[in-house]
Design a protein that fits this description.
The complex is a heterodimer of chains A (240) and B (269). With 240 residues, chain A is α/β, with parallel strands linked by helices. Helices cover 34% and strands 24% of the residues of chain A. Classes of the chains: A alpha/beta (240), B mainly alpha (269).
Chain lengths: 240, 269
Amino acid sequence: MSIEVKNLVKAFGEKKVIDDVSFKVNDGEILAIVGFSGSGKSTILKLISNLVEKDSGEIITSGGDIAFVFQYSALFDSLTVYDNIAFALHERKDLRKKYSEKEIREIVNEKLALVGLKGIENLYPAELSGGMQKRVSFARAIVTEPKVILYDEPTAGLDPIASTLIEDYILRLRNETGATSIVVTHQMSTIQRTADKVIMLYDGKIVFSGTPEELCRLDNEYTKQFVTASIDGPMKIIEK
Amino acid sequence: MALVRQILKQTVTYKLFKSILVNLIDFMEVMGHITTCTVEFFKSLFKGELDRKELITQCERFGISSLPITLSIVGMTCVIIVSQIAQEMVKQGGGNFVGALVAVLIVRELGVIMSGFAIISMIGSSMASELATMRVTEQIDALQTLKVNPFGYLFAPRVMAGMLMMPLVVIISSLFGILAGALTSDLAAGLSYRVYFDSIWIGIFAKDLFVCLAKAICFGGVIALISCTFGYYASGGAKGVGIATTRAVVWSFVAIVIIDMLFAIAFFF
């Protein structure tokens, strides 16, 4: 399923967080949205998934479920891993009576296997490491066979090996489910290893659009500052 | 002009009006949130989104977990009142009416309002902090992205549990209060249990019981609804959870006192 965003605008109070943003992600593609903190990256994901209402513009999707993988996993801490993954199948009105408990168990096991976790169904989120929580949140997100997966900083706060593992799962999920994906990230490794296309946001606007290779060419003042992690450049991090 | 504006801003009158305006806006915003949540709660009920499994869990929480504290508060309040009035009433020749007075006090007011206060402190605050934590940790956002209506999953079972279980809590705690009153009047004024229990029916009418139960249903629903609303609209991490919980408790206290007053005006004025 493709996603097309046209002239999207969102303001919180007087501050325009997203200012006339347009882009398109084709079916099965992975788009990375990069930029410094507060540049509006996560807001775009929340707008696409209807968690936040847009002020103006268009978000065109061709139907199907949109899954969201949250930055801090957002697992239901009072439920076990099994109940977290099976949540939509148990609670969603249109899915509640579609599957028997035996079928739900099979689906949960299949999704857990897909993210490389088995035998942890009865544990609670607090008993898992950060990387495991993230993978459980992947499994929960894909349980309804979504056509689009939105990842909000999936590798933030993880060690390099756990990050590599998560990046592999992003690619694996795309390859196995064919889902279109948008990944919000700061990490160069995540961009280079997973993305087909990259857009860079600054102050609510797109300042770069291209491939991961083009991002690293350093022929754009913004991308140069981002890739070299320089304080000097057109992007001002600390507002005076 | 700028200087005049700056001087004006330093005046007490300006600060007072600003504070009133800020509080008024805040009040309107909270009322808007409560109204929205009430509408969404009823919509989720009509759409059949009430989660029955969660309803049973919440009923257990509302009805059973709260009983020790509710019984203690209502029981002790009765002991305090009876130990002060029983002796004096017996001295003045009104010993036959101690049971009636206690029963009227408990059935009309103390049983329901004291249970309400206990439920707010114990259950309302925990509901508010639970939902607020879910909000700040994006668990409510996760519910929405999984296409599960938070009002059907979170609000409906809690508010329904409040409306179903509060009358039960009030009945049990009121009976306990009347028993505590009997024991205290015997110990403090030597009043026999028979005299005490015989007089109970002098002051109690069917209307009192009906109003008591109607109040209990309203209190239960309102406490759960207000607590869930503040939790649902919480923001700003741990501090936000604390603020939401405190405000839920304060608003619930004020709300049930206002509802109690409206019942008093409507039925006993």
